[in-house]
Amino acid sequence: MSNPQPVNPWGGSQASEHGPSVVWVGLRGFPGVQGGIETHAEHLCPLLAGLGCQVTAVTRAPYQPEAVGRHWQGVRIIRLWAPRSRGLEALVHTTLAVLYAGLVLRPDILHIQAIGPALLAPVGRMFGLKVVVTHHGPDYDRQKWGAFARWALRLGERWGMRRAHRAIVISRVIQDLVRRKHGVSSTLIPNGAALPPLPVNTQALEPFGLEPRRYVLLVSRLVPEKRHLDLIEAFRRAGLPGWKLAIVGAADHPDAYTRQVLTTAGQAPGVVCTGFQGGAALAQLYAHAGVFVLPSSHEGLPIALLEALSYGVCPLVSDIPANAEVGLPDAHQFPMGDVAALAEKLRDRCAEVSEGTVRHDWREWVAARYSWARAAHDTLAVYRELALSARRHHESGPRAGDRQPQ
Prior knowledge:
The chain is about 40% helix and about 15% strand. It is of the alpha/beta class. The protein has two domains: about 15-190 and about 370-395, 3-Layer(aba) Sandwich (Rossmann fold); about 205-370, Rossmann fold. The strands form two sheets. Strands 3-4-2-1-5-6-7-8 form an eight-stranded mixed β-sheet, with helices on both faces. The protein has a six-stranded parallel β-sheet with strand order 11-10-9-12-13-14, with helices on both faces. Helix 2 (about 35-50) crosses helix 14 and helix 7 crosses helix 12. The longest helix is centred in the C-terminal third of the chain and has 25 residues, at about 370-395. The radius of gyration is 21 Å and the shape is globular. The chain starts with 14 loop residues before the first helix and ends in a 10-residue tail after the last helix.
């Protein structure tokens, strides 16, 4: 992978020599930071750097691992302060990040991640930056938000989709939503999957009493829309002798739901909560799982599911549109919220694993459909097209393809 020159910290574009300079905002940090957007950035940013982009990620200091330093795999990382407040941290940090990008970094492109941070899209335009927004999902549907937060997220979606120069979406479901609600065309660039080597080591399983191919796995943050309680109850009803349920993940801001999940899991035989896991430990937990379950009520395009498939784990998911779009057979889906149906499907899938299923098939299946490398090339195409329209605009005035504020 090439190591591009860093973005000029005093401003000015170097795009003509090295490719576009891009600043990513709206994410907590990476690598090894919990969250779908963070995993998205962890995969895409280094690939974009390898394709010649000068990529800077402005991350939240409370989450960004200090040991990573200022550069990681060709990506420049700038840690900025953010409050540890669920309702404020994204908005406050993105405001600071956009101001820093507009006043100091002066990139060719400002790439905003998610609809909450997209509230700052008009500010990016005020600085004369070309703005791209990636819509990762309608976050106002998440159960954790109150009325004001939902309103702000809907406004962020409106401004992000209508006032950015280009909109990217990660699923057809979101693309249809954006077209229907905002009358805006968008570029579909799904999340990807990379086929990792399958670890033989099982050291990470030992502290939790897990045996290879004899546990059900859920990897997610502890938030209501992931519906951990449905899975715990379904696992209890399924009655799977010798099996355990491993819930991997933590909450950024522990609350009543977090306490309820941990309490319920602690009282349920065979259920273990591992907390947040990353790196080699998470790889081992994925690789040796028997069945991966995602009982969510809300997703964008679930990276955790794609990662489980990349390790060849048998999947079982709720039938919400975002999960259904992945294209799993009906036998691997169940009606969202139907605990009895989940328990029945869980028994069936675990029986298949006990009989011996071929993991290679699932790995080939996901690799044929989802690729981070393809996502990087498609994202670069958006950057280049926007840079080309900017040059045309400069040379001959506004053109139809350069979206104007509404």
